[in-house]
Amino acid sequence: MSDIDKIDRKILAVLQADGRIANVELAEKVGLSPTSIGERLKRLQRDGYIEGYGARLNPQMLGLGLLVFVEVLLDKTTPDVFERFARAVRLAPEVLECHMVAGGFDYLVKARVADMSAYRRFLGESLLALPGVRESRTYAVMEEVKRDAPLPVG
Amino acid sequence: MSDIDKIDRKILAVLQADGRIANVELAEKVGLSPTSIGERLKRLQRDGYIEGYGARLNPQMLGLGLLVFVEVLLDKTTPDVFERFARAVRLAPEVLECHMVAGGFDYLVKARVADMSAYRRFLGESLLALPGVRESRTYAVMEEVKRDAPLPVG
DNA sequence: GAATTTTACCTTAGATAATCCGGAAATGAT
DNA sequence: ATCATTTCCGGATTATCTAAGGTAAAATTC
């Protein structure tokens, strides 16, 4: 599975916490020269361990104060519904995540909007407007207990 | 609410897509000098729009091939259950997100584990072992249609 | 088991980028 | 219109990245 050693894991852990850290500083933290770090970084990126880097923004500050999860059931008699639903969801900017799940429903959608009225609009005009959507259950988040934790690499 | 202008939004959009971009390159993209970009960045960070930077890792490559969502119901007769549950969840490395929701259940947990047997262990030893957990429903993800989309800043 | 290749690492030096400072231009308020 | 504030830029300094060359250890081959 993984041919990465302890140093690689340390690098990944540090980079998850601070993706913009300078190479020299990262080198100090893991006890290697900046050059070696650079080579390891390039390898980790080439082999697909690191997919990219991103800024973590504060949703509240950007007027996206409401986080919602929506369970969606599709009408499986219509053909193409899954593909069409997936395509539409990828285009909707409010949708941060969408997963096809095994269990009582078909898709679990995670979306961020400004407030409840914005959500009503999104639900009616984006989600339920799609053909083949048979049922939906909305769960509004009251408190985010844990948000976007780093992957355990240790 | 937001006193950030179009240039700030552009900066945030670019940084979400590539958090490790060089300042000079970012400056070219938004049509400003690197010095000004630096000042804006510092302000965006100080005011809390940018909470940090992180590397995006590939869960599969790290042996975390299974993504699950768990709906958890708590026994509200026991005191402190919410606080204790929240504390435990924050400490569990498998749990990437946990939200208290309004609706048919109390908490929605998002977790990544190696496989089903690892999940069984996590569910039994970490989640259900907590006092006050009355019921849980697990939904295993079969396909990740949309993953970690950037926040709409436009 | 010895020779060879490969790999990982370090140091150095030259290129590149970030930061600090002073001043100019734009913006806004009185 | 004037003053104050903010935003921006250019140049100098400092820090960082990157590429080249060299060494040692490990893996591979014979």
UniProtKB/TrEMBL annotation, chains A, B:
<dbReference type="InterPro" id="IPR036388">
    <property type="entry name" value="WH-like_DNA-bd_sf"/>
</dbReference>
<dbReference type="Pfam" id="PF01037">
    <property type="entry name" value="AsnC_trans_reg"/>
</dbReference>
<dbReference type="InterPro" id="IPR019888">
    <property type="entry name" value="Tscrpt_reg_AsnC-like"/>
</dbReference>
<dbReference type="Pfam" id="PF13412">
    <property type="entry name" value="HTH_24"/>
</dbReference>
<protein>
    <submittedName>
        <fullName>ArsR family transcriptional regulator</fullName>
    </submittedName>
</protein>
<dbReference type="InterPro" id="IPR019887">
    <property type="entry name" value="Tscrpt_reg_AsnC/Lrp_C"/>
</dbReference>
<keyword id="KW-0010">Activator</keyword>
<dbReference type="GO" id="GO:0006355">
    <property type="term" value="P:regulation of DNA-templated transcription"/>
</dbReference>
<keyword id="KW-0238">DNA-binding</keyword>
<dbReference type="GO" id="GO:0043200">
    <property type="term" value="P:response to amino acid"/>
</dbReference>
<dbReference type="InterPro" id="IPR011008">
    <property type="entry name" value="Dimeric_a/b-barrel"/>
</dbReference>
<feature type="domain" description="HTH asnC-type">
    <location>
        <begin position="4"/>
        <end position="65"/>
    </location>
</feature>
<dbReference type="InterPro" id="IPR011991">
    <property type="entry name" value="ArsR-like_HTH"/>
</dbReference>
<keyword id="KW-0805">Transcription regulation</keyword>
<dbReference type="GO" id="GO:0043565">
    <property type="term" value="F:sequence-specific DNA binding"/>
</dbReference>
<dbReference type="GO" id="GO:0005829">
    <property type="term" value="C:cytosol"/>
</dbReference>
<dbReference type="InterPro" id="IPR019885">
    <property type="entry name" value="Tscrpt_reg_HTH_AsnC-type_CS"/>
</dbReference>
<keyword id="KW-0804">Transcription</keyword>
<dbReference type="InterPro" id="IPR036390">
    <property type="entry name" value="WH_DNA-bd_sf"/>
</dbReference>
<dbReference type="InterPro" id="IPR000485">
    <property type="entry name" value="AsnC-type_HTH_dom"/>
</dbReference>
